[in-house]
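Chapter summary example.
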Amino acid sequence: MSTEDEKLLKEAKKLPWEDRLTHKNWKVRNDANIDLAALLDSVSDPKDPRLRDFGPLFRKTVADSNAPVQEKALDALIAYLKAADADAGRYAKEVCDAIVGKCLTGRPKTVEKAQMAFMLWVELEAVDVFLDAMEKAIKNKVAKAVVPAIDVMFQALSEFGAKIVPPKRILKMLPELFDHQDQNVRASSKGLTLELCRWIGKEPVKSILFEKMRDTMKKELEAELVNVTGAAKPSRKIRSEQEKEPEQEGPSEVAGSGPPEECVADAPQEIDEYEFIDPVDILTPLEKSGFWDGVKAAKWSERKDAVAELTKLASTKKIAPGDFIEICRTLKKLITDVNIAVAVESVQAIGNLAKGLRSHFSGNSRFLLPVLLEKLKEKKPALIEALIQTLQAMHNSGCLTLADIVEDVKAATKNKVPLVRSLTLNWVTYCIETSNKAIVLKVHKEYVPICMECLNDGTPDVRDAAFSALAAVAKLVGMRPLEKSLEKLDDVRRKKLSEMIGGSGGAPVGTSSVTAQTSGARISSVEASDGSFVRRSAASMLSGKRPVQAAPASKKVGAAKSGVNKKGDAASQLKPPKPVEPEDVEPADMSLEEIESRLGSLIQADTFSQLKSAVWKERLEAIVSFKEQVEAIKELDHSVEILVRLLCAVPGWNEKNVQVQQQVIDVITHIASTASKFPKKCVILCLLGMSERVADIKTRVQAMKCLTTFCEATGPGFIFERLYKIMKDHKNPKVLSEGILWMVSAVDDFGVSHLKLKDLIDFCKDTGLQSSAAATRNATIKLIGALHKFVGPDIKGFLSDIKPALLSALEAEYEKNPYEGSSAVPKKTVKASESSTSVSSGGLDGLPREDISGKITPTLLKGLESPDWKVRLEFIESVNKILEEANRRIQPTGTVELFGALRGRLYDSNKNLVMATLSTVGAVASAMGPAVEKSSKGILSDVLKCLGDNKKHMRESTLTTLDSWLAAVHLDKMVPYVTAALMDAKLGAEGRKDLFDWLSRQLSGLKDFPDGAHLLKPTASAMTDKSADVRKAAEICIGEIVRACGQEVVTKNLKDIHGPALAIVIERLKLQGAFHETFESAKAISTGTTSKSSSKVGKSGSTGHGDRIPRHGSRTVSSRVISAKGSRPESIMSVQDITIQSQPLLNVKDSNKDERERLVLRRFKFEEPRLEQIQDLENDLMKYFREDLHRRLLSTDFKKQVDGIEILHKALPSIRKEITEVLDVLLRWFVLRFCESNTSCLLKVLEFLPEIFDALTSEGYIMTESEAAIFLPCLIEKSGHNIEKVREKMRELIKQISHAYSAAKTFPYILEGLRSRNNRTRIECTDLVGFLIDNHGTEIAGQLKSLQIVASLTAERDGEIRKAALNTLATGYKILGDDIWRYVGKLTDAQRSMLDDRFKWKAREMDKRKEGKPGEARAALRRSVRENGSDVAEQSGEIARSASGPILSRENFVHPELHMERHSVPRMIASANGPTDWNEALDIIEYGSPEQSVEGMKVVCHELAQATSDPEGNAMDGIVKDADRLVSCLASKVAKTFDFSLTGASSRSCKYVLNTLMQTFQNKRLAHAVKESTLDSLITELLLWLLDERVPRMDDGSQLLKALNVLMLKILDNAERTSSFVVLINLLRPLDPSRWPSPTSNESFAARNQKFSDLVVKCLIKLTKVLQSTIYDVDLDRILQSIHIYLQELGMEEIRRRAGADDKPLRMVKTVLHELVKLRGTAIKGHLSMVPIDMEPQPIILAYIDLNLQTLAAARMLTPSGPVGQTHWGDSTANNPPPATNSADAQLKQELAAIFKKIGDKQTCTIGLYELYRITQLYPKVDIFAQLQNASEAFRTYIRDGLAQMEKNAAAGRTPSSVPMSTPPPASINLSPKFASLSPVNTNPLNDAKSLNTKVEPMNFSLPPSYVEDERASNAVNPRGTTPDDSEMRQYLSGNDRFPAGVTSGTLDAIRERMKSIQLAASAGNPDPGSRPVMHLNGSLAHGHSNSHVSDSANADNPVQSGVLPMDEKALSGLQARMERLKSGSIEPL
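The structure predicted for these 2030 residues follows.
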């Protein structure tokens, strides 16, 4: 790319997105689209506000005329759609229309991306817009654009399904495409039609579309429809469903398998043809048919024919609405016709009308219903059948609803004829069953009483019908509506109704659960959403091109949410990886000729011809040759299918010769075993023939071998599945029997892991065992026996309902094939493993498990809690019955509630029920398997408590349950419960003895069982039990424990054992042969000589047998973690540990803490660590911790973890600095330990943590926000530990953290703990809130509104929580007094009463302890703030961060504070509920912490708002007095709040500071009251923060930058302008380096100062720009003095150097001076009272003023009063006029002439008018119009009107700066559009609302001509330029002899004469000029002037009252002061 292009692109990046995307240069647009796509890829939050900004841009970008740009725009759109959510749909219409218009005819890649975008719109639920766009697209005249539109509709339908993409609209589009002239469009439309058939069925499509097609297309489609098999399933979900979708789970797949579920899931979506059919008018032909005459005929046949004609006409599918009232009246009469045939025909006609008219027939239906119901009394079957069909049709068509028919049904159920009553109720039952739940819910109250009444009917049919109706209601809405009604029934009827409901109630539940599971199994969603897009054509549906089945998911999807899961890089998006498509298993037909053509030269031609020979020998010879040729082929993979097809065709499976058959089978076997992939379609081609060959004894061996080879190639699951149907349907019984025998061998070879066992068992039961052939039954028994070897006796549960003879044969077979379990290893393996679903469908342990959640009904659970013991027993037995029905194999789904109910029965008062429950719990555990551990919710502990019963039967039942539980889960999972039970004192001696005996039995068969070590302590304790039986049992048990655990494990756990038990264990160890040295080391550990912590760790009742890391399967750690099994005791140091001792413990060289902390999610709520977080922690531990240390920390053994902590503990004093760098890693590890809840490790951690924080505090390190976010949520959540000791340690740790870190920052975490589900945690957090209020009330003062959370806890049921909440609120009352009621929120009367009582008690307690009254301390401290402000400055917590801290603070120069220790500071600074008045608010702002000061600022803002809203009140006067103090406080607070927010805190305080300043400076009175020094510090602070690079990274950084900009502009607008000028000119000097924060980059202070100066220059430009209108508001003397000081400090040499270097600050000063001279002309010389003009050498400013006067006069931009250019200031005619012109009249005329000239100039007319008005006021006797005799009348009128306007303005108190300009103001500074604003970013300079700073790097900006062009401008009058350059300056300043050395007489004369002239001019007015004090200037003034200050401009005398022109008054004042100084000789050189 050329330099120009690069520059263009670089410049363009600064433009807004819209400008970049619509730029005229295509490269810029291309680059913008690429950048936009990258940006959108990084957006992770669908609610990101940027997405809303980008949405409208795409309608233009995708329509770009440049093809590559258009493609990149589509990439950006795709990225946008992946990042956005459904809210983006608002832009869909415009964007989709643009894509349709411009993209579908582009490049193939562009079309593909356009289709991808359409798919994403559908995913975002903009389906209607998508289809609208498609309707436009298919009407495109270019066929090339129509095909992609059809294809994308096809793909949307196939992937999202018919629920998302409505087929109705597609069906309407298709007819016009069938006749399209382009064949590709026609082919695509056919493919789309076939896809519709897959979704809504063939028949609806045929009926709707076929009549609109040509015959040829109908035939083609009919042929294609044959190939459409199976039903479609959506493979992709819309975004909202993806977000709700849970992670994919195995059990749901298991549950979703099986034929019944598939049937439910595969049902095609029903579509109503009615909506697509055109209505037919039947009234007109009915009139013509003679219907009306016919129905009145006397003959019944004529009446019947007339009605039959109506029936025929009404049989059309959709009837046009019309007036059918008269027809219905006629039919009503005919229903009661005496001839039954006429009545039947009439009823049928009504049915047809109802079907055809639907809702349009509802009124007529209600009219006819009573007659139809009455007619049910007829006994003629034909009439009854017609009535029933018509009634059902009326309901199905929507003519009648349940609500419509209530009254008619009531009447019918009271009919005398029982048949009417029963059939009516049957019809009601039908209506209920076919209605939806919502309708039945509305009307069930009407129907239940009707049915209940009919239950008492005397006719059984009526009663049965009523029962059915009630059961139908219960099916839909449950039992609740029937409960009250059932109470009225007797037991018999109630039982019958319950049976009917129970028998039918499960169906809907089961169906719904199946649907849910099926959808769960189909969780795959879309690979296309994850970044790849597979373009599919609709034409691929046609023969040979389409997959027949709906494509299932081919892989597990990593993330269900495709929109959030981010894409890869750009390359991967443009070239998506080809997805693995599912294999097409159905072989298509292929002719022999096609096979021969495809074979080519693969097989010799003569071999092929011989295979077709009729002579068997030739065929045999050919097949042998064929076999040799095939064996010679090296690469078979590409030819497998064609070779197999050839053999299936010739010689084929009908070959009669056995030898040829054998050879064919051998060849196929060879191909299947040799090819790397053998297609399943080849298996299907061979399977039928091969099964027949198996039945033939001559070819059986070869065929069985071939089938086994097929299993190796494709998996036995597929072969078995295909063989079931072949074997079942085959006529030859040998095929079935021999096939089953082959299956026996296959099960032996491959095991059952690849089989769907449920299908196999069903096949055996339904086909094999039911066969009449004995050989088949025997083979099936062998097959079941083979299965028994792999799956065990559980298989018997599936075969319990077969004949006893077969059962006995099966039992014998089971004995031959005993269960081998895991030792049964398959002999052969499968080359290509099958999909995960087929493998997992068999379940983890083989046999399928049933989902019983639908049977665990509320009735069942409620029955288990019934007060009647018989009912409870009945429901316990019903649970056992459910288990029996499920073959004692169930899924855990829905069993949590069941276990909860059974737990209650374990405490039943009836002991028989407890034993029955124990038996049931054991049965449930056995049926559920390993999953019972998670679902049981700790019921095992309740089971173990039953051992405390003194009845032996109860204890035996409990032990039986334990045996069942042990069979389901491993003993290590039971150990924690058993340990807890053994420690339970309530477990009697007999119970402990039985439990020890049971344990001994279980341990006797175990080896290497380290978890048994947890049993050591309770067993050792039991050996000192007072019961001899217990001691004996415990002794036996401990022997088994020592044997099973091993010596090493036991030795390590000896520290938990004390006293006599220790000696017994040691004796056991000696018997086991343990070393004496090992015993000594263990003894040393157990005595606890090293530290107090050892004994504390020992008290462990933990379950610390597992660790998160290996549980999640981390590969990284598994290779490093040392297994606890067989390892030596840790007391003996390993050789590896010795070799690495020389390395440092922590390696922090490469630590990138900032990057790690950036990834931390800062949340207050605790979330369990995720797998990826644990893996990151492992990597960090390995990276930064020494190997021996991280090995211990990552160990699964908690003892090694404790050792690791001890290593850190010992090394802590020497690694304090290093530990700060990895503190976040260490805290993450501590969080993991907290989650594990191993008590020993947890106690060790809690002992170590306080020491860490102490060490960090001593190092001056304060925990960062990220570290707090890592650790505090977990610490708070776990603070409610169930062990008191742990809770105490956690409580103290939290208090320590809140003191060392920050109470204000800790408080939100504690508040989150109040919402915990753990009651203990809530109690602890409530107490901590009280602690913080009592000890850190000031720091959390701003967050006390959260006390309402504590107050709400007083309504909790738990008494402990209520007590804690009341105590905390009482503490608050002690501190806050009655103000606490403001924070507790809305309370009930009971709560208020409780609180009131507690507060009174607290007040009494305080009185007893002489602590004063509640809230008293707050008032005293509030007073102390004002008295001792400087002493308590540090108490807010603003302790300066030390150098080790991560945040660099800037020293505050306005209010330097003393750094004090926290403990020496008083506890509180102000009231906890914030300040109450203005002064207290200022105190809090000045001395409080950033968070506290917010409360003060709220009060200030409130006061300011009130004072502003009441301008006539006195409130503003008081505020004006404090304005300077307020701004001073706020200026000092700016740095504090920003530093505070940079630590990671909220930016709330920053926003408040800036807002308060904004409100202050919006009021001009307040702004003018701010002193210059305060303004200096404020402006400096604001500009520094505008330049600070850290601000954009803060919370709401962009908003803060904007606020800083707007505030700065407001200050420049409203502050006293003289002070603003002086401050800004002073700030042009280099800033003191200490004012800057330490460099965060390599940027030098010089570079920073340059940026700062640039900002100051921009502020000055803003002030200078409006100088012309504000010239009377500024004190020119002070401004000139500041310019003078600036120039003098630089010196002439530096000025020359800077002028050459293009120095911006110097040029700005020159510009300001130039503008002042231009506006005031020669009168500027009268404003130099503060400049020592007689110093030597002469001030530089004088030379610049003269040069400006010269150049401006030369350019005719001013009218001088005399010749300019004199080099000596004492000789100027302005100051020393000749006597001839020195009279007052001459002076006045001269002034008037200058004024009239100004009025004549458009630019200065307003100023001129104002000056003329002032002259008329000063000289009322002078006739100014006498001077205008020669002027035109119009000019005089203009002046007269102008003076009148000026008089009005003066009366209103307005000056020229505030009056409206009659003409545009003079453009004194010609600002170009290039001229930059105050911001370093190049924005519009004239728009004040634009920001001062949005980016740190300053850009180039232009300045006014006098500023930019080096003060040069070509002018005809003065060729050297209009402003002085350096050569002129040298000319002025080189000759010092021209300037007097001291005070000369000429100078005094000049000043004296000037004063006289001014006094003469003022003689007509008030002569009192009013003098102005002189500012002290660098020590140049002596005698009494050194301490004087410039008076504020707000207090200056009013020019009108003084009688002197404003500037002349100032000039006079300055000249008088100069006279005094000259006379006294006090002026000294600088």
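To summarize the output: The CA atoms of residues 644 and 682 lie 7 Å apart.
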